[in-house]
Amino acid sequence: MDAEIEVMKKSLKLPSNVSIEVLCDAEYDKGGWVVIQHRFNGSEDFFRNWTDYESGFGTLDGEFWLGNENIYQLTAEKPREIAFLMEDFENNKAVARYATFKLGDKAEKYSLKSLGSFSGTAGDSLTRNVGSKFSTRDMDNDKSDSHCALLYFGGWWYDNCHLSNLNGKYMKGTTTVYAQSMCWNSFKGFHYSLKISRIMVRF
After folding, report:
1. Is 66:46 a contact under the CB 8 Å cutoff?
2. Per the CATH hierarchy, to which homologous superfamily does domain 7-134+194-202 belong?
3. Cα torsion angle, 116, 123, 90, 162, sign
4. Which of 52, 111, 129, 186 is 20 to 30 A from 161, comparing alpha carbons?
């Protein structure tokens, strides 16, 4: 896995009858994947507000978040498989996959309703967040007395607060700050910012 992944753009009709342009991966594990997040150089700011995360930001040619409403629509008809692909600055790769990913709708604050069984090499740093609503710097929906999105500089399904933060600060490798970077604790810990993150839903 690297920044120049084997992908193609296509138009996808969502259950809401809205068509959006998406990035599809036809190579990874027999294909059929829609990329919902891609980060590889820190060019896009992911410390964004609720509206940005809801509608999506960035470009399919660069770093981006597809948008919570679009991601919800991908899982509206049934739960989907999701894959979190990661790479560090020493070119070590890892993946975390879950069998039945499903988001709640806007009224449910795009809550992480289901993940299902885990598989992969990165370790499971997300299951504990099942049931958590999505939070951003201006929308505190977490289960903590503090404001996790502000503390950890991202938008995520924070509970109290996280074991993964793939929309956190893009830094480069080992960091002195705790859990603020683009991290997946069971892969590289809280003091390491990953080089590449790609999140995909099989649709």
Report:
1. no
2. Gamma Fibrinogen, chain A, domain 1 (3.90.215.10)
3. positive
4. 52
CA 38 → CA 29, 34, 82, 108, 139, distances in Å?
18, 11, 14, 25, 23
Q: State CA 86 to chain mean position distance.
A: 11
Q: How many CB atoms lie within 10 A of CB 76?
A: 14
The rounded distance, in Å, linking the Cα atoms of 10 and 77 is 20
- Nearest-5° Cα angle at 92, 86 to 94: 40
Measured between alpha carbons, how far is 39 from 44 in angstroms, rounded to an integer?
8
Q: pLDDT tens for residues 50-98?
A: 999 999 999 999 999 999 999 999 999 999 999 999 999 999 999 999 9
Q: What is the pLDDT of residue 75?
A: 97
Q: What are the boundaries of each domain within the chain?
A: 7-134+194-202
> For 112, which DSSP code?
E
Tell whether pTM > 0.85: yes
* Mean pLDDT, the chain, integer: 96
Q: Write down the pLDDT at residue 3.
A: 46
